[in-house]
Write a structure and sequence with these properties.
Helix content is 67%, strand content 1%. It contains 22 helices and 2 strands.
Length: 567
């Protein structure tokens, strides 16, 4: 506007000949007034626009103040932990609304809006970092609070012991738990004769293994029973000793009969029965067992009765429980073995086409093949985890794992010997891979010395027999040398069932099978074709003394054994 006014007064030539600022004093009064008026109008418009913007911001601030006041009133009603999170959440919401406002305000100036967005993101990131730091601070303060509360409790106990009787009379009495010193106890539990049935009921018949095994001392029921036996021996009450041991044996038999197919129950009482047997040996007073004890433990040995005959009864009971556990294992694994070890294609694409000359099976594999090798491994993990939670002796776990692997190997081999569609080169590779996964499981659990791997040897050799060459005399010699864990009948059966998968393989000739039979005719082995999948290995219970001090054992209230008195 100013230049327009000057042009009107002097023309464009006049402007070129004179400086704009240096010649203002040369203008006529009318031109100067018009120029000043034009400048004032321009500044007035700028100020009016700025004033409008400021009024809008003031209105927004008023609304924000009202929201903050409402938020403050709401936060005062929240617990302290929730106030910080609510405040930060509100701040993030406010910034989001502010972003929408400025997006409309700077719609005509994208660059200015971009700068604002960057600053907004930085503020949001700062708020999130602040929230994370405050969470860490809250967790740290909670931990410190627990430590200080514990120290205060200890100080209060110490102060209570030093307070005079006069001061105690003036102050309200607060219950203080002062534990008895362990040296006061001799590792025995006393109970009234009338409470024996209650003891068996609460400790055996109605006890839930999961809570005891996870939260308490492994083998706690066995220790409690032995401490009761110790007290009966201490007071020289032979009738009570006999009654308690008989009731214990009958109680265990009763719960195992009631829950005969429950692996957790059977494993729990196998572990506790073997621990009870170890306690009867460890504290028998016999020199062979005492040499493993501490002097304090030798002071806890039985004084009046020789329970060697009862040890034999308890050992027989443990053997029965082991055999029952074996049946439970077999029932759990049986449905998985054929599908997981034979039918499921662990290595995809190896099987290729169906063996030639086979008709479609009437039983659908899709219906039965719901289990895989992973299913078997998960079941093994579950069994092993439960036994470890129950504190079962490591040597006993090894024997149980050996029994499990024997079941898997024998059932797999028996089905292989009865199914022509499973006797092929590719199936031999599948079986060998599955066996290697089981061997890997043994290594992961540090059970290589359990003897479990050896029980799979017949299955391994049958799988190798499916894979080796079967043509020349040299091949026959190699087969006879390799297959020393399977019988002649089983070798011949596999060779007869062998079925090529494709045209590159050949059937085993009758002459080759006769050669094998001639070479093995002097071998003294069983003529039986199938393995005895029901076979149970003899179990032993190697002595495993406990380092746990009987006088340190405390019975939790959740076991409902408050009628037992520590002696």
């Amino acid at each position: 506007p100013a230049s327009a006014v000057l042009c009107a007064c002097f023309g464009s030539a006049g402007l070129k000949g004179h400086g704009y600022t240096s010649t203002l004093s040369l203008y006529s009064p009318s031109c100067r007034s018009r120029l000043l008026e034009s400048q004032l109008q321009g500044q007035k418009k700028v100020y009016e626009n700025e004033l409008e913007i400021l009024r809008g911001e003031v209105q927004n601030l008023k609304e924000e103040i009202n929201r903050q006041q409402q938020l403050l009133a709401q936060n005062l009603q929240l617990p302290p932990e929730a106030r910080i999170e609510a405040s930060l959440q509100h701040e993030i919401t406010r910034l989001t609304n502010e972003n929408l406002y400025y997006e409309e305000l700077y719609a005509d100036d994208p660059m200015k809006y971009q700068y604002y967005r960057i600053s907004l993101y930085k503020r949001i990131i700062d708020l999130m970092e602040q929230l994370e730091k405050q969470d860490k601070t809250v967790r740290k303060l909670k931990k410190q609070l627990k430590v200080f509360a514990k120290k205060i409790g200890e100080l209060e106990v110490g102060q209570t012991e030093n307070v005079s009787p006069a001061q105690l009379a003036d102050e309200p009495i607060r219950p203080v738990n002062i534990p008895r010193k362990e040296k006061d106890f001799q590792g025995m539990l006393e109970y009234k004769k009338d409470d024996e049935l209650k003891l068996i009921k609460n400790l055996i018949l109605e006890l839930k293994p999961r809570g005891v095994a996870v939260n308490l001392i492994p083998g706690l029921p066995a220790y409690i029973l032995f401490m009761c036996v110790r007290h009966a021996d201490y007071i020289n009450d032979d009738q009570r000793v006999r009654s308690l041991l008989t009731s214990t044996i009958n109680g265990i038999k009763k719960i195992l009969k009631k829950r005969s197919d429950d692996f957790e129950i059977v494993s729990f009482w196998l572990s506790n029965t073997s621990r009870f047997l170890h306690c009867l040996k460890q504290y028998s007073g016999e020199e062979a067992f005492m040499k493993h004890n501490t002097p304090r433990q030798n002071d806890h040995c039985l004084r009046n009765f020789d329970l060697a005959e009862y040890r034999q009864v308890i050992s027989d009971l443990a053997i029965q429980i082991y055999q029952q556990l074996t049946k439970v294992l077999e029932n759990a694994l049986q449905p998985m073995i054929v599908s997981g070890m034979l039918e499921h294609e662990t290595i995809q694409g190896v099987s290729g086409l169906k063996p030639t000359g086979l008709r479609k099976r009437t039983s659908s594999v899709a219906d039965e093949g719901t289990y895989t090798l992973d299913s078997i491994v998960r079941q093994l993990n579950n069994f092993h985890s439960i036994m470890c939670q129950h504190g079962m002796d490591p040597e006993l776990i090894k024997q149980i794992v050996k029994q499990m692997f024997y079941i898997i190997g024998s059932v797999t081999l028996n089905n292989l010997l009865l199914r022509k569609d499973m006797c092929s080169w590719s199936k031999g590779m599948q079986i060998r891979y599955n066996v290697s996964q089981l061997e890997e499981w043994l290594r992961d659990k540090n059970l290589q010395t359990s003897g479990a791997k050896e029980t799979l040897e017949p299955l391994i050799q049958a799988a190798q027999l499916l894979q080796v060459k079967k043509k020349t005399d040299e091949d026959a010699e190699a087969i006879c040398s390799m297959c020393n864990a399977i019988t002649t009948a089983q070798i011949v059966k596999v060779l007869n069932l062998y079925t090529p998968v494709n045209e590159f393989e050949e059937r085993v000739t009758a002459s080759f099978i006769r050669t094998i039979q001639v070479r093995l005719q002097n071998r003294k082995d069983s003529p039986q074709l199938l393995m005895d999948a029901k076979h149970i290995f003899p179990v032993t219970f190697p002595f495993n003394p406990s380092s746990l001090a009987l006088e340190s054992i405390q019975i939790p209230g959740s076991m409902n054994l408050g009628f037992l008195l520590r002696v």
